[in-house]
Design goal:
This protein is an all-alpha fold. It has three helices and no strands. The chain has helices spanning 2-9, 14-34, 42-63. Helix 2 runs antiparallel to helix 3. The chain is elongated, with a radius of gyration of 16 Å. The two termini are 16 Å apart.
């Protein structure tokens, strides 16, 4: 567990930082759509749910990428 925590705290490459930020953007937009006060079509709500899932996964996976990893 400690190795995973250390990996998450190491610097992330620039490309993966962009993927992480885009994933967070997707998650935020889908949250706004899902919690909209006005009634929206069901297909839009469904797409927003899948977009939130994809954005969360993209953010989590890209955060674990590191610049350099030592060989065991």
């Amino acid at each position: 567990m400690k190795k995973i925590i250390n990996r998450l705290q190491e610097p992330t490459p620039r490309f993966f930082q962009r993927i992480r930020n885009f994933g967070l953007l997707l998650t935020g937009v889908s949250a706004v759509i899902s919690t909209a006060v006005i009634p929206l079509p069901a297909i839009l709500i469904t797409i927003a749910g899948y977009t939130a899932l994809a954005g969360g996964i993209a953010s989590a996976v890209s955060q674990t990428a590191v610049v350099k990893e030592e060989k065991p």
